[in-house]
Amino acid sequence: MLGAGSFPQSTLLPILNQLEAVELIGIASASGLSARSAAERYSFAYCTSDWQALLHDPSINTVAIVTRHHLHARQVLAALVAGKHIFVEKPLCLNESELDAITIAYHAASQRATSLGAPPPLLMVGFNRRFAPFIQELQQQLQRVTEPLMLHYRVNGGFIAAEHWTQDPAQGGGRLLGEGCHFIDLLIWLAGSHVHRVTTYALAAGAQSGRSVGALQRNVPSDNLLVVLEFANGSLAHLTYVANGDRNLGKEYLEVSGGGLSARLDDYRRLQIHHGRTHIERQAWLRQDKGHRATWQALVRTLTQGEPVPMTFASVHQSTAVTLAAQRSLLSGAPVEAI
Description:
By secondary structure, the protein is α/β, with parallel strands linked by helices. The chain is built from 10 helices and 14 strands. About 35% of the residues lie in helices and about 20% in strands. The chain has a 9-stranded mixed sheet with strand order 13-12-11-10-6-9-8-7-14, with helices on one face. A 3-stranded parallel sheet has the order 3-4-5, with helices on one face. It is globular, with a radius of gyration of 20 Å.
């Protein structure tokens, strides 16, 4: 594992520690201190401050990249050259040149694997919402719909100070690239079609609660966004991402309509689907399940049992390319052709 911050230690490692087919071998962090703590807590064989050492370890076949966003592309490229399977937390990368380099490296690694009689490398991004049980059930019902869909996803993201590393364009990429990719990926997956045009609208930066004068002087884009996705199959989706709301409202809300179907998902706690004589209501009484565990279970089944790849590189590429197009639209103030 590359990275040993709060997210992997609180969310990913407890899951991996319970999967019998997973052996935790090495973990790396910049200073080595957090890696040592994680290694002791989760029984890794060793820890290091040199992440490249993990890529050179022949006993490791899969790496999880959970470092800061600006490191993802560089580490994915190195892992592909090393012939590893890869799980990388979102985002995959922060710009088009990085995406192009990853695409070339992925296809080269696939060709090398094929020449050796091995399967191509698995490259999964942490788009875990696809694997959430409520989303899986909704997607199954959408298979019965043959007409274009209308999709609306609202994210009550909350305020993050401009000084936080995630807001640094060079290090974190900002809210749209760093987190918006989650929801853009899910909307594309549910629509089941390619995006041909994306348009992003935003409030003026000074309109959001808590935005500092320093941020305005640095021309930091607003965190209050509306992203419109136009699909080749006629479907329309819009993502509303707000940072100026109250956190007492649930974070995520999804509505889908089309072909006589109406569905609503309220913060992964309640799902309602109505379609003719079909009426489905589900309630998560104990906790939200946003698909983190199911993501890793699917990855492990692919590597150990030969099940179909749960997330193709083509879909990863499309979601990333559309998110980058949305960022270009945000900065230019104009629609962007995504394909």
